[in-house]
Design brief:
Layout (H helix, E strand, L loop, with lengths): L4 H25 L5 H10 L5 H6 L1 H29 L3
């Protein structure tokens, strides 16, 4: 059974974007929460820094958009590679 590339891209994008958003908002309320995860996100997303996530909700939205695009890209690649190896 083959995977839907678009479906998995949307699912991964929403999941990872939502995860970054929730952790970033929690980090705004409690500055020590999710620091390691947000440092990981900041290391792969240019323009997103942990100091920004600590200071504003707008930075949380920017991080969520980065997470949405990164997750969608990874989901599409995963489904595409999976479909290369699966038999009909």
């Amino acid at each position: 059974m083959k995977l839907s590339v678009v479906g998995l891209a949307v699912a991964f994008g929403l999941f990872f974007g939502g995860s970054v958003l929730v952790v970033s908002l929690a980090h705004v309320m409690s500055p020590n929460y999710g620091e390691v995860f947000l440092n990981l996100v900041a290391s792969v997303c240019p323009g997103y820094h942990l100091t920004l996530a600590h200071s504003s909700v707008g930075a949380a939205v920017v991080g969520a958009l980065y997470g949405l695009t990164n997750g969608a890209f990874c989901g599409a690649i995963f489904a595409w590679v999976y479909n290369l190896f699966v038999r009909d």
